[in-house]
User: Which sequence fits this backbone?
């Protein structure tokens, strides 16, 4: 701004707006959430290169009318697109500017201020624009000596060393988001990940993603048993939040002024607003994730490690701000390392199931033992647990451990609980100390194999990365060895998987599953598979009685009760199905399908009954169960086709 001194303009603002008008904000007093909103109303406002000196606005019926004066431009908005003028272009504001404000007195003062601003010719005084001079502008109508005394007597919370650490972090983060904004794939990848339900225009920047991540990390430290009650940590959040909105405290404020800011009464309220800021509706898959690391992984961006480093540096500043790191804070620091180093991806044909928190080994074993049937599986898992416990004891006694043999082959037809047992086994390994997270990642050939040379290994790496410290469950794994074309992509996936199993042998457990005959052929097809999979679990078809018990569980969970006649009819159906089963018989899946058909038939039967009592609603009677022979015939025909 060549002909006007910013300090002189601020003084002119203070002369006119020294009373407490509603929705009038001066430099440094604008709430952070309002700053975020301004970019929607003033599209060409560049907060990186402009400092807001005065904001006056009115909201009525969702319409925003306002004036925003920066050190470079004047922005006016009323209904239409905002006007943008340089301060020098103000000639006759009362004639050329159309502005509606609800308060007539405020309108008159505003127009008078603009008139005087247009006439004022103030010489640029570089000395006045220094950080020191700006810092001394603390309280209006206080002489310079009194201002200096106030600042010198403020307790030092943010010292120079800590301030430089935070400033350096801000510099590094700015370098990252500046480069990301130049990446042509940034918006595309963001839209692919979370675009549903969100409007992502070109105005959306990497700063928004970074800001949301930093707030999420801060809230990890400020929830549960950990609470941030430290002004230094709160300053870190406030500084970075402002920096990401284009306001650099380090260049605008002196250290005494910063210390005055963090000790002001309104500082805590500002922090609370920042903590609640939300820029995007995050899909369920990413609720517990940090967005930018997940994006970097998907983009295969070379700055991925830099993002992880700066996020962890930020988390350490928060944890160590009070010069102590508690055990709870150490856990959060490790969580941030996991979220930045191994971010979650939303992968096609891949399902991820997290291990529950605050459970014990006994809780998991009870859940296992409560499963219907699977007597042999429960016995084999009990033997495995005892084996692994002894290996731990041997290691503690400095004795050589026997091979851990955590990888396994699950052989059996569909619907016999293979995925359920795999999920429980992952959690058992976690409680025994063999896996850190104990989550389950479930996939099949489609999730591992690509259609182009070189892409399959990349897909395998992506899936394995999501499964590290947990269990990878590959259903119908034999399909990987059944390539019929010239391109042997299935075997490429097997080789890539075997390499990762070796490279990450302490972080990864793999269970492959499928029909018994096919799985035996699959394992013997590759020496690498034979050497890594030497523990086999056989899942048998459920008997008629076991299928009936499974049906009863479905009914109980949905608040239904079986009459004696209905139970007897179902018993006939399940006995017949078991007796005439084929290798692909769906077991528990069939029991669920029959239950859903019973519920539909019951609804058709009772819909015209008046009044419908609770007893009528919960009772499944014999007519609600489909005919025995017809049901058996249909299930065996269609279920075989599905298999």
Assistant:
């Amino acid at each position: 701004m060549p002909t006007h001194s910013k300090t002189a303009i601020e003084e002119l603002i203070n002369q006119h707006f020294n009373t407490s008008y509603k929705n009038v904000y001066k430099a440094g007093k604008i709430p952070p959430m309002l700053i975020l909103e301004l970019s929607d109303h003033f599209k060409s406002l560049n907060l990186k290169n402009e400092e807001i000196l005065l904001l006056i606005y009115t909201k009525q019926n969702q319409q925003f009318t306002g004036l925003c004066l920066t050190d470079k431009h004047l922005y006016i908005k009323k209904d239409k697109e905002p006007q943008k003028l340089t301060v020098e272009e103000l000639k006759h504001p009362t004639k050329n500017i159309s502005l509606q404000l609800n308060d007539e007195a405020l309108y008159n003062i505003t127009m008078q201020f603009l008139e005087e601003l247009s006439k004022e010719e103030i010489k640029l005084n570089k000395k006045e624009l220094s950080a020191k001079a700006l810092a001394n502008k603390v309280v209006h109508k206080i002489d310079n000596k009194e201002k200096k005394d106030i600042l010198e007597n403020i307790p030092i919370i943010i010292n120079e060393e800590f301030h430089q650490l935070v400033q350096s972090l801000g510099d590094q983060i700015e370098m990252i988001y500046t480069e990301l904004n130049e990446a042509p794939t940034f918006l595309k990848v963001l839209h692919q990940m979370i675009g549903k339900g969100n409007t992502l225009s070109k105005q959306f920047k990497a700063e928004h993603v970074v800001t949301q991540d930093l707030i999420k990390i801060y809230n990890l430290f400020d929830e549960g048993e950990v609470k941030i009650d430290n002004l230094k940590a709160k300053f870190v959040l406030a500084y970075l939040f402002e920096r990401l909105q284009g306001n650099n405290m380090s260049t605008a404020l002196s250290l005494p002024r910063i210390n005055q800011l963090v000790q002001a009464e309104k500082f805590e309220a500002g922090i609370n607003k920042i903590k609640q800021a939300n820029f995007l509706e995050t899909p369920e898959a990413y609720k517990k994730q940090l967005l930018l690391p997940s994006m970097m992984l998907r983009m295969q961006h070379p700055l991925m490690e830099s993002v992880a480093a700066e996020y962890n540096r930020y988390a350490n500043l928060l944890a160590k701000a009070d010069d102590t790191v508690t055990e709870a804070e150490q856990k959060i620091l490790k969580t941030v390392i996991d979220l930045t180093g191994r971010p979650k991806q939303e992968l096609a044909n891949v399902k991820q199931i997290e291990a529950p928190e605050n459970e014990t080994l006994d809780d998991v074993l009870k859940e296992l033992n409560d499963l219907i049937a699977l007597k042999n599986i429960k016995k084999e898992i009990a033997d495995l647990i005892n084996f692994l416990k002894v290996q731990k004891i041997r290691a503690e006694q400095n004795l050589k451990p026997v091979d851990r043999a955590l990888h396994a082959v699950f052989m059996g037809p569909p619907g016999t609980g293979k995925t359920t047992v795999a999920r429980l086994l992952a959690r058992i390994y976690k409680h025994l100390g063999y896996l850190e997270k104990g989550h389950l990642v479930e996939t099949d050939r489609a999730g591992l194999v690509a259609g182009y040379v070189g892409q399959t290994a990349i897909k395998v790496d992506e899936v394995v990365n999501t499964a590290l410290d947990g269990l990878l469950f590959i259903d119908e794994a034999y399909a990987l060895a059944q390539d019929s074309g010239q391109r042997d992509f299935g075997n490429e996936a097997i080789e890539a998987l075997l390499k990762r199993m070796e490279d990450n042998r302490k972080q990864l457990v793999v269970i492959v599953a499928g029909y018994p005959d096919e799985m035996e052929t699959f394992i013997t097809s590759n020496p690498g598979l034979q050497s890594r999979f030497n523990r086999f679990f056989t899942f048998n078809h459920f008997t008629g009685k076991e299928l009936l018990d499974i049906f009863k569980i479905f009914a109980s969970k949905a608040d239904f009760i079986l009459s004696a006649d209905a139970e007897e009819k179902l018993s006939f159906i399940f006995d017949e199905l078991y007796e005439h089963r084929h290798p692909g018989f769906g077991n528990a899946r069939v029991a669920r399908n029959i239950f859903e058909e019973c519920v539909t038939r019951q609804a058709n039967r009772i819909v015209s009954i008046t009044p419908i009592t609770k007893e009528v609603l919960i009772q499944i009677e014999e007519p609600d169960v489909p005919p025995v022979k017809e049901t058996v015939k249909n299930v065996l025909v269609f279920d075989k086709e599905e298999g």
